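In this supplementary section we document a worked example of the pipeline. Step one takes a protein sequence of length 659 as its only input; no multiple sequence alignment statistics are reported here. Step two produces a three-dimensional model, which step three serialises into structure tokens for compact storage. The input and output of this example are shown verbatim.
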Amino acid sequence: MGTGTARRTTTLLLAVGIVVITYLTGPIAPAARAADTGNAAPQTGRIVDADPVAFTPHVMDGAVYAMARVGDMVLVGGTFTRVRNAGSSTDIARVNLFAFNAFTGQVSTSFVPNPNDRVYTLAPAADGTSVYVGGAFTSVRSGGASVSVSRLYEADVATGTRIATFQPGTINGQVRDLSVTGNRLWVAGKFTHLQGRPSAALGTLNATTGARDPYYTGVIAGVHNGGITNVQKIATDPANSRLVLVGNFNTVNGVRRHQLAVLDIGGPSMALANYYTTQYESACSSSFETYMTDVEFSPDGSFFIVSTTGAYGGSASVAGTSGCDLVARYESAATGTNVRPTWVAYTGGDTTWDTEVTADVVYVGGHMRWQNNPTRGDAAGQGAVSRPGIGALDVANGMPYSWNPTRTLGVGVKDMVATPEGLFVGSDTDVFANETHRKVAFVPLSSGATLPVRQVATLPATIYRVASGGSQLVSVGFDGTTATVPTDAPNGTGWGTTVGAFMVNGDLYTAYANGTLTRRTFDGTTYGAPVTINAADQLVPQSDWHNGDVPNLTSLFYDRGWIYFTKAGSSQLFRRGFEIESGVVGQQLYTFPSVTGASYSGMRGAFVADGKLWFAGTNGSLTRADWTPTGAVAGTATPIAPSGSGWASRALFPFQARP
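The serialised model returned by step three reads:
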């Protein structure tokens, strides 16, 4: 379907059991909105449609670098000279900045600032009616006349006029990013002075008047690989208590913070946070003065996402320690001088320019060809899945969802904006989901999909197990202390070659000695038809998993987006991401050592429930330990059942019904 063609979406309304057909060629109904100063809409439990609406305008040349939603209007900045309404053949002169209605797509006739150079960033003001514009420009149109500005100004979205009360003065270099916290405007970029005073790469202004705000007192210095000290992107959490900056620098206030730093900004004075990661000390390609491309907080502020360019990282990507061509999650509450990412997601040597983070999805845009691809550069490796130019990752594990609209690559997506209605995407190319959408596309939320519910196991529960060396599935009731007498359960197609199993949302996942993993429904009595889990085998067979891991399993369990397992001959706990929505098994392999009280070499069956790890030993004992996503907590092991209690299992899992 090309632009202007009727777009039909079928949405199943499960609550009432009817099917509704909607046509999205025309306007969509707006929802009530409060002033938004930049944080993404949560879109909880949902992912947007892969098919864009037909009403967005076209950018006929150049590229889009920035987008923002203010009220019912979407602002678009970049390098271009002409735009066009959907369904029209008439070009409209708009230079580097324009606005269109978020619900009809019609280009504003009154917002015509025409900055004389590139627009890099747009930040909604707190009043809900104006926008801060930053870039490389030195003049804009306002009230029918050209007005001199210095790379930053505030514009009224309805009229396009410059807000004269905001006077930011002279900035001697490009403004690359902006963020509003209260009545404070953070300004980041490639400059050395704000209003004639030293303030390399970052500074603060009064958001109303533009006067210099003395709150920011930091000194950013050094470079990664030549060029000038600069900050490419900043992100502030929803509580306005923390700011993360990424770019071409080495120190903040004389303390090493190579390419990434975290500031505490919630108090009366700014402070450098005790937060550092060595991930971005990787050299990466010498073509880049910095390879940092974006940083975004989650809607609740509990974590932030960082993306990079930089080329393939080789063996360091396999190990998960490379900062090159990466998307990574960091927990906001972490501290220390060697903070490790919760997960890493490599593309195989392709750039991710932009991320947009909702409650459940990390939307990634760039010119990447694959996701789940840490083992090959510029080619699909084991586990790689095709996601040309745009993709969606699970916030829990970095695994790709099945969402795959595709787009023509070009340089790539440079900005995305998640709103209560969907996702706006800006880039430098013209084809999105095999349709013509020149530089701008919008994919709606209402016709998207509901994501799987994130259940965690609790006790008491029915526990199923197959004894080590056995073939009969049995069930017991278990409350965390005592178990009922085992009862034979229906065996289905048999358990004699099983090496592990777990349940998620009413589906039983079973691993076999031949290296396969299957999924089928299971209600405690009836088994559904098996489906082989092979989404990550479609381009290159995932032999490390199928041949190296599965046949050697001694325990297998699942917790919140991750497959955990132990293997014969190893004292480590292994972890791979597993996306139940798409069936993609992670190629990135994480390992954790045995700890006091929990020897993984002797584990024969395990599961997580109530935030604890329950594991069986080779001697038939059952033990409980405190649990974290990186394994059992040392020194917390508590015996539950003694040796000879019969808990040693080839499969051990709690029943989990459909939510």
